[in-house]
Design a protein that fits this description.
alpha/beta, 16 strands, 45% helix, elongated, RNA-binding
RNA sequence: GGCCCGGUGGUCAAGAGGUUAAGACACGGCCCUUUCAAGGCUGUAACACGGGUUCGAUUCCCGUCCGGGUCACCA
């Protein structure tokens, strides 16, 4: 990775003396007694094989994750695990207001469901790993230690501005047509004297800690992004907030400190962080730490009307992970889909290696796209069909039942009654060179196979219109008389041909096409009649096979039921 | 609006200074076929625009346009 230009000479050093800075720090953080080097010792460099990557997922516990989050998380997971590195779950709970009860548990369960497992970090039970705690609010003392350090160094200061004062600054800036923000001469409390601070403190005024930025936005630095290559950005000059009034850090401060002390090597995050990268770089430089490799992923987009839009948790609840889970998408299918979106060469690899587990694919950040990808349901379906077609009937049956048990209880009761039957149904067209691919997700599979179950059987389609009622009844009656479970597929269909011929239908469609006036129809029409009788549908898998699975009794009952229906009609 | 990131068929995308500009999904046609699914063959369809640099630009540079992101004591 390329070296980052270090921001050097202070533009406007603090007006306080070194001694005053020390006293200020002590005044603000008397309770902080640990020193920076204590933390360096507490969280040592990791002893990992060469080339091992340490990545982290840092969700905020707002109780909702969508496909876009999974997308990034999956990249993190692959990078860590394929390099024998470490994959960490860190809960970024610095915003108490937005926290949702139980969100962490939901989050972990969901991620696990989709095959993401963490080596270190927060767990449902608590946490594991030597670099914890992994919930940021529990690391308050650590952040405060470094806030204190920066104040000692004259690189941070307390700011007592109220909401109204900040608003005043913003409107003045708007009027003057300059960039908004707390910086330079607009940073009112940047040069408060020690006495002034004391005075406000005595009045119990709340304060935040801000960085005393030394950057100059006229100057640019370049940085190598793991996904996007060389990036050119202006230096930061914002005195952004490090510690909020409650003593809890902002994302910016927590991110830099945690990623340093958890010894993270690669930071994957959404491109919405690109514009604050200069904040983070200034912080890393100020603290004298080597920044990890930044990898800014593209956000997953959604089509809204004519335009693309970033996935939003508020507007797109249907893109929430639980949505896919509740519809019964197989986790492997979702993973497979995500991988095709994540790495452009994955599909190619998959085509060449149909049988290999996806873990063997060499995932790289360089192959990740940097333009916004649209979530493509068609593609997900296709991938899903492919994945399900590759599983055994047993595996599909288990998956289907697991899904139905929680999301489709009635269906579960029906399907679970006879596991052998269910398995036989799901085995239709499975295996071999060109398996059927009509199963996509749980709910859809259930719809697809429900006609096999008497409890759920209904006539979804009408009987063929070109066969009159009398003929239809006679056909069904004769069919019933001639049917034998022991016939093989060919023998069975031969009988259907004969049956068709006996009732004035062409035994072969070609004959019918040649002389349509000589026939009532052709064998296909007769099949169609049988198909509706047996399955309630005009389209279904192979009829002979269906009857083999349903058995003589059930099949015969269906035929009789159809006759009843015809008579009644 | 400032700043940042992007722009190759409908979608996802490969690609290199000279290619007939891959592939996948979707869509159309044909074949196979008792329906469906699968399979085989095949077709429609793309380098945002304008300037440069160059013998040659979709590829490099600049501008324009378009899309997205971000400008919080949210992450």
């Amino acid at each position: 990775m390329e070296e980052i230009k270090i921001i050097q000479e202070p533009l406007r050093p603090t007006s306080l003396s070194a001694e005053e800075c020390r006293r200020l720090a002590e005044l603000l953080f008397p309770q902080i007694t640990k020193r920076p080097e204590d933390y360096e010792a507490l969280y040592p460099e990791r002893d990992l094989p060469a080339g091992a990557l340490v990545t982290r997922l840092g969700p905020s516990p707002t109780g909702f994750i969508h496909l876009g989050n999974l997308y990034g998380a999956f990249a993190d997971e692959r990078l860590a695990h394929q390099s024998q590195g470490v994959f960490i779950l860190r809960i970024e709970d610095t915003d108490q207001k937005r926290e949702v009860e139980g969100a962490v548990e939901t989050l972990i369960t969901s991620l696990n469901y989709f095959g993401l497992h963490f080596d270190e970090g927060a767990t449902v039970a608590g946490e594991k790993g030597a670099y914890g705690p992994y919930r940021q609010r529990q690391r308050a003392a650590l952040y405060q230690c470094f806030a204190k350090l920066l104040i000692q160094q004259g690189r941070a200061y307390p700011c007592f501005c109220t909401e109204a004062e900040l608003e005043g600054i913003r409107s003045a800036q708007a009027e003057a047509k300059v960039n908004p923000g707390y910086y330079g001469k607009w940073a009112k409390h940047r040069d408060l004297s020690l006495a002034q601070v004391k005075e406000r403190l005595e009045k119990k005024e709340a304060f935040v800690v801000r960085l005393r930025s030394l950057g100059d936005p006229e100057r640019y630095f370049s940085i190598e992004d793991g996904i996007r290559g060389t990036l050119s950005m202006p230096e930061n000059n914002q005195d952004f907030v490090l510690l909020k009034a409650d003593g809890i850090p902002t994302y910016h401060f927590a991110h830099v400190i945690d990623d340093h002390f958890m010894r993270i090597t690669h930071i994957l995050r959404g491109e919405e962080w690109l514009s604050t990268l200069p904040y983070h770089i200034e912080l890393f430089n100020t603290l004298g730490w080597q920044p990890p490799v930044f990898c800014h992923t593209t956000v997953l987009m959604k089509m809204e009307g004519e335009t693309k839009r970033k996935l939003s948790k508020r507007k797109d609840p249907e893109l929430g992970l639980d949505y896919y889970r509740s519809l019964g998408y197989h986790p492997a299918a979702v993973r497979e889909y995500l991988l095709t979106v994540l790495n452009s060469n994955y599909e190619e690899w998959r085509l060449a290696n149909p049988g290999l587990p996806m873990e063997e694919f060499a995932f790289t950040t360089a192959k990740m796209g940097s333009s916004g990808a649209l979530f493509d349901l068609n593609k997900l379906s296709d991938v899903s069909k492919e994945v399900l077609a590759g599983l055994s009937a047993q595996a599909v049956a288990e998956f289907l039942l697991d899904w139905a048990r929680t999301y489709e209880k009635k269906a579960y009761a029906v399907m679970a009654k006879d596991p052998g039957y269910l398995k036989a149904i799901l085995n239709i067209g499975r295996g071999g060179e060109n398996p059927r691919k009509d199963l996509i997700f749980g709910k859809q599979i259930h719809e697809f196979i429900r006609f096999f179950f008497d409890e759920e059987f209904i006539y979804e389609d009408a009987f063929p219109e070109n066969i009159d009622k009398e003929t239809a009844l006679r056909l069904l009656e004769d069919y019933l008389a001639g049917y034998s479970f022991d016939d093989d597929n060919q023998a069975w269909f031969e009988k259907v041909r004969q049956l068709a011929a006996a009732h004035g239908f062409a035994a072969k469609p070609k004959d019918y096409k040649k002389n349509p006036e000589q026939y009532k129809g052709h064998v296909g029409d007769v099949s169609s009649l049988l198909r509706v009788a047996l399955s309630g549908r005009r389209n279904s898998p192979d009829l002979w096979e269906i009857q083999q699975i349903m058995g003589t009794e059930r099949s015969a009952a269906r035929i009789r039921q159809a006759m009843e229906k015809l008579r009644g009609a």
